[in-house]
Each structure stands twice: as structure tokens, then as C-alpha cells.
Give the backbone structure.
Amino acid sequence: MFTLGGWLFADLLLGLAMLFAVANTVGQEPPTPTPTPAPDYLATAESDLAFQEAENLQTVEALESQIDEAAISAQQTREAAEVVIAAATEAANTEATRAAMTSDQRATADAQATQDAASAQATIDALATQQAQSASNVDDLNSQLATNVAQATEAASALDEMATQQAEVQAVATANADSGANAQATVVAAQSQLATSEANAQSARATSDASSQALANAQATSDASNQLIADAQATSAASGQQIADAQATSAASSQLVADAEASAAALSEQVQLNSLNPNSVEEIIQVSLGGVTGGDGDAIDDAIAELDSVLAPYIDGQNCRLGFVLISSRANELGQGVTLSNAIAELINDEFSELLPEPAEGSTPELASVSIAYPGTEPVGEVELQLFLSSGCQPAG
């Protein structure tokens, strides 16, 4: 019983202490809570986004400039290819008219064709250089496109991160509202800042959409530029084939001209060999009248040596043939003179056949000559050879 009374007395004292504490705080306002400042994530995100947008705009402008340069290069390539095609067509037309040209005109045309071929080769080299530059520009363009797409992706990621930060700011503002009435001003300011941030974010999204559209337009322009380059390369290949065909035609025509000229030269030589120079050449030899007409071997050898001494320049010359020979021999009697002239004609026919005209097919070359005598004249055994040579004869020496 005594123990229970002790516990009741302690409870009464605790209750009195609590009443006293409550009485002292009645009518007093609770302490003002200190608001927690919101981190300035939004300003940082907006600054980063503005910087990223500026870089994206610069990249798009540089990309559009490179695309314009690639289009200009492709147009220049096409124009150069058209010039080459026109030159090849002109060369083909020139070769088609070669058959109707004179030799002087053909020589002039050959010189012009050589100059045109050199010009065409230089144009092809320049075209190949432009094509290599265009290919390099296309590679750079594709690299810039990839970089720009990566930057756009980073901008979108920044937008998402900024939205997350905005949500965090809203959560901080809500927490501050729970801390007391004085936090209301902070919440209002945060909401105002959030509205401004949302407006900026909307503007950033619009700018990002514009950048995406610019990228799409740049990609379309790049595709068109690639198509122009492909068309120019195809035109260049066709032009190269036409030039190759024209050069082949020119080579074939040149061969035909060379064959025709060779045939003309051979025909001219044949005509010169078979036509006579009306101006005769006189040669005189001295032989043994009795020995030659009597068939003496030594006398005949001496006569052949005499003939060789006067006919050697024509044997060693060019295009020389004996078309006709008038042989006049001095003798005591007419018959002896004619006999000696006939003997000399036989020696020329047998020993100097290379000077005889080309015979008809299946026939034997034979000297055309007339034997004459100078009877009762001195010196006996002197023989005059009146040579009518081919018109193109050029004696040696």
C-alpha cells in the first residue's frame, strides 16, 4: 500500500510540471523556420543549352557552306565533261572526213588531232583531280553530318537533364512550403523562375527542332550533291570511253592513211619505173670490134667491164630502169657496126638484167633497143649508148 502511494505521487508531480510548461508557452507564436535555398541548377542548364545551340548553328552554317562548295565543284565537273564530249565528237567528225582530204589537208588534220588529243588528256587529268577533290569534300561533309547529329543528341540529353532539374526545384519548393508560412515567398519566386525556365525550355526545343530541320535539309542537299557527283563521274566515264573510241578511230584512220600513202608511193614508183624521161643520157665505151663480134672471151669480158663502168651509177641509184637504148657502133663497114651494136645489146640484156623494165606477169624481161652503125668512122670499136631511163631515176653519186 505504501509502495503504490509513492508512484501516484510521482505521477502527480510530472503532471504539474507539464501544466506549468504549457502555461508559460500559451499565446506565443512558433519560431520562424529558415527556408533552405534552392540550388541554381536551372541557370546552369540554360547556360549550357544556349552554348550548345550556338555551336549547333555554327556547325549547320559551315555544313551548308561546304554543301554549296560541293555542288559548285560537281557543276564544274559536269561542264568539263561536256567540253571533253564536244571535243571527242569533233575529233570523230574530223576523222570521218579524212577520206575526202588531200595529202596536205590530211597532214594538217593529223597535226590538229595530235593537239586535240593532248588537250583532251589534260582535260581528263584535270577532271580526275576534281573528282578526287569532290570525293574528299563528300567525306568531310559526311563527317560533319555525323558530328552535328551527335551534338543534336547531346542537346536533347541536356533538355532531358534540365527537365529533371526543374522537377527537383519543384520538389525543393514544395518542401520549403511545409516548413512554414515564411517559405511562401520563396515558393512564389521558385514558381516564377520555373515558368521562365519552362518558356526558355520551350524556346530551346523550338530552336532544336529548327536545327533538326536544318540538319535534314543539309542531309538532303548532301544527297543531291552526291548524286551530282555520281552523275559527273558517270559522264566522265562515258566521255573517257568516247575519247578512247575516237582515239581508236583516229589510230585506225591513221593506219588506213599510212597504208594508202604506202600504196600511193608504190604506185608512184611503179609509174616512174614504167614511164620514160624524154631526155636521154649519152654514154660511150670502147671495145674490140673483132674480139666481141668473134666471140673472144677476153674481149667480151673487157666489154662487160666497160658497160659496168658506165651503168654502175644507175645500178646503184634509185628507181633506174633502161626503158630504151639506142646503140651506135663505129666500124669500117655497115654490117660490122650493126653486128657490134647487137652484141652490146645482148650483153646488156644478159649481164645487167636488174636495169631492165619490170616484165608482165609470166614473161621474161627484155631490153628494148635499136642497133645503128657508123661505117667508115673512127675510132673503130667505139660504141655510143643513148640511154632513155625511167622518169624517176636518181643515179648514184
Remarks:
- Strands lie at 281-286, 322-331, 369-375, 382-389.
- The chain has two domains: 41-272, 281-389.
- Residues 183-274 form the longest helix (92 residues).
